[in-house]
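Have a think about this chain, tokens included, and walk me through the fold.
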Amino acid sequence: MNFVDDSKSFTHQSEIDYPVDKVFPQFNNLQNFAAWNDYFREKEDLSYSFFTPYEGIGSAMKFSDKSHEEFGDLFIRYSNVNRTLRYQLFEGDSDNPYLIDVKFTAAGNRTKMFWNIHTPKRSYLERSLNLVAEDFFVNSIDKSMKNLYLLLGNKVDRDQKLASIKYDSIMVENRDGELLLGVNVSTRNTKDILYKNVLMNHGKVINYVKSDLGKKEDEFGMPVLITNPSNLKDKEISYFYGVPLSKRISVSDNNFSFQTLNASKVYYIYYQGNYNNRVKNIQELLKKAKKDTLRNGQLLEEFLEEPTENQDVKLKLSLPVYR
């Protein structure tokens, strides 16, 4: 150990078969980062807390296992979109962080990443850890790249399916039942307020499922808003906003509850545009049900892409129908 430095720096290069504009957001958002990075995935029973801003400079997250034997903090200290990121990783109670710099280089539809990792200064008795640090991180990075490749593959497949959607045509299908976890909401039904309220509750649900419940993106489905279609013109509107889970689990926060969607026949229509203009398509579904002398259930608004402020939405609007 006399010959082991108190800290160590090393580099590593990795490459992935996706363009940088797809890859960089997976690093720049810590909720995304924790979902595929092997450093976190290989640790059992980790729970997370994420802090605003959720991406870019100033992003922060805490992680801990149930026994609090493994815990720490991760920060983004520098972010130059599609080019460079700097992380600080603190393990346990240590005041000395790992410094991790990642440089992104676009190579057509591929992205090259150059990692520069500087280990924290260690006490004399701990310096032997620096002997294995490089092998540990290189192995973790390589596994992480495989995880990210699979995740992006799923996203690209989903994007291709979205690109082939036929909008504004009413179709029919038998929809499977689902178990949703989310929040019940009442809000004023105005163009300025409703969508902002939806965005707020989307963030609340996703953060709870990821942070408090420790669910990864592939462990829950696309968010669904459930409301009574006959109330769409009321001054106040009530709705349930949640995400599908595979099974019921213990939930300690009373703000969240489960709602069961029964399997049913549905009329559905895809909509793309301003959220407030979706009502015309909903009315088409109601007219179709009435014309076919069918009764209808609650309206389901499934968000095919994450809702974002000042952006058009992509929705699958479904209306359960029965005699």
Residues 97 and 299 are 50 Å apart (CA to CA).
